[in-house]
Amino acid sequence: MYRRLLISTCKLLIKLLRLVGKNGSALPGLIIERLYPNFLSKSLSQVESRIILVTGTNGKTTTTKMLVAALRGTGAKVVTNATGSNMTRGLIAALIEDMTYFGTLKPTDWFVFEMDEAYAPIFTEKISPHLIIALNVLRDQLDRYGEIDRTANLIKQAGMKSKYFIYNELDPLLAAVAGELRENSINTRSFGAASELLSRVANEQTVHGQGVFTEKTEMSTELRVVNETTDGQIVTIHSKNNNLKISLPVRGFHNALNITAAVAVLEEIAPQSVDKAQKAISTMPVPFGRGEKLHIRGKAITVALVKNPSGFATNLETFVKHTKPALIIFVVNDRLADGRDMSWLWDVQFKTVVSKTSKIFTSGIRAYDMAVRLKHDDIETETVTSVTKMMQILMQSKYNNVVIIPTYTALFEVRTALAKYGKVPRIW
Q: CA–CA distance from 121 to each of 53, 115, 158, 159 (Å)?
């Protein structure tokens, strides 16, 4: 009775929060976390064979969206943490929203959860997922994760509890993790890119001027061809069972690798339905803030989230270097979810990427830090610390081709501020 009452109350709370414009994951998740601490293990213990975890430093949200769209395209019923809240509270909210008011799970084929790397081994203490996909290990929030070998170890701990482990063969730390997992009888499969595409890879090695590591396996799903289009790209992916040509509605080589990862999962869990899945992927909405395009008052605005040096370099390459936008706005915060240490900004190369013809603004809590970094590369900027004021200036400006590059918490501030001027899709 207690469980039913708690779940019913939180289901109603989620609906109420959505009505007032909130995403509805934090508060209901907090209530259950405090009052029913074993909720996740109790709810998911009977469906472990249908749980897929997506983890790694970059690309979790986008890869999860791709995989969910693909599975739903095959007719599967999927539950996922769609808001991108990837720890306890987000997962709790995702389950509650899909439960009946009696507190039972509805018939579901797959539970696909984006998961924070540090939270993954905590989640798997009591739950053994069917499959874990590991995308990459990069320097990110050193105050939280420490060095990258520690992050890889966290992923390994979670992988030890899974039945299948799919990993990026271009990442030496993940290749080493996979080797250890195989020694412990965990099934492994990899994904990667053809040798002629390795020059386009941006990862921990390339950021520091090294070559790309690659370890081919017989069970590899390989990205073969990437052709950019106006609004996306067309990629060719080869695997043991299929040779696919997929139209992606998102740009960037990193996203070509993300869809390769998703295809590797499909090859393992639904090999006969990959053709249906690729049609669904071609029509999926662009995940919020991941190269998202907004059209507000005649302005074309691209919003591209950054969290670490490799992600920053990738987004500069994709959305700045080749498009030369009229206006670029860097919005940098240092709240807990962003990482408090912003020294990583100095690992990013701007001088050869940002065009002298672009107008540059910096905004956010660490706007002046960003301005100093750009000044060091001889890039002149104007600084407006208030994100709300910055978006007002943008809307009153003459610039129509705009790229906004925010950190994590800044992304939500930017979208909230822009919503005052036009339609900004909700994230749930």
A: 11, 10, 4, 8
